[in-house]
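Example record for the data management plan.
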Amino acid sequence: MALHQSAQRPLIVGWLSKFLGRIGHPTVAMIIEIDDFARLEEVYSADTLATAMSFAQTSIKAHLMENDVTVHLEGGRFGCALALEAPFNLEAMLNTCTRIQHAISNAPATTDLLMPLSASIGLAASDRLERPTGDSLMQAALSAMSDARPSGPNAVRSFSKKMSDKRLATQKAAKDAQRAFEAGEIFAYFQPQVSMDNGTLSGFEALARWHHPERGIVSPAEFLPALERAGLMKKLGDAMVEQAVQALQFWDKSGLEVPCIGVNFSTSELRDPRLVDRLALHLNAGNIAPHRLVIEVLETVIAGEANDDIISNLSALADLGCGIDLDDFGTGYASITNIRRFSIGRIKIDRSFIMGVRTDTEQRDMVAAILTMAERLGVKTLAEGVETRSEHDALKALGCNDAQGFFFARPMPVQETIGWAAAFFSHKERPVQLSKRVG
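Corresponding structural encoding:
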């Protein structure tokens, strides 16, 4: 049953609803998504992709039954409503998915594509839902697709109650995160960065913390994905920059000399066309010079093919005067070309390289090579996660510029930084150990 490509989700939901009330066997919703479609859009023309998507839709329909419905939803995503003529059989359905994937991979033979396409598939059968409707069946297939995508390319997942529980937990986490913002429970902690050359304070990094009223301090590894899924990363970024500016004002009034503060930005934030204007507004409102704000960018962001928005934003931020730190260096294989291209001022060597730098010859040689490369590029270096005196001394001997980690202090509220600094700089021979309460 052919349908025009401009059909949208309500149409496929409508067919699922009709099939639910009409056929005697389970109805199946299937979502088929071309893997890494965003990258294909950067490489190929609109006409080439349109031809390829037409080929993909024809390939899907060729492996379904006559009464099944296939709709091109958007981009590289297709939706199918299947009116089964027999009881649902997962093995048979998986075989159908495999045949569809194989057919789609043959697209280069009939299009201008230079590489095979791959597709991940999520499916849901109505007998797996307690009270199936067209909309809930579609949502279940989308959940299965979300579960399949990280395992792609060519992954297939069938909806299960476990996925439903996971989706509900995700929705709850997103609601909790929204409430946390409204209640003022998410705010910045600050971890010092210290110069290896003379032991002076070279800056702080602002790190998001969530003070949950029942659970205490929630790990960023847990709540940051929830914020990402809830679309709250821009709100978090604004909150961190605002609090970073307030911290700089606080330190200036207190007489603590803090050259700069680093703030982390997600990939989605770095794509925001208004990012530079937003940051400039915060800096102007706080009367803070741009060079005192450092943008921390994960190496994995620039190691791949960063899009034009990211390139433009980082270039504009460098022109504004902000510093650019390359975070977690060594985990994303950024090229030397990219380090120059993105105006990187300092690379932060990942903790995985720091461990064993004193006793492991290979590890020490690798760190030394990074430091030599950085020096020749005119880029400063900071060692992340320095925890022991031996790590500190080895890195200092190798010529690392700055260091950050528990050896100096755990992240702390801004009010505690003055006391930490007074104690640390009067007893430089030993780091100040703060209570784990502030970590």
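Summary line stored alongside the record: The chain is about 45% helix and 20% strand.
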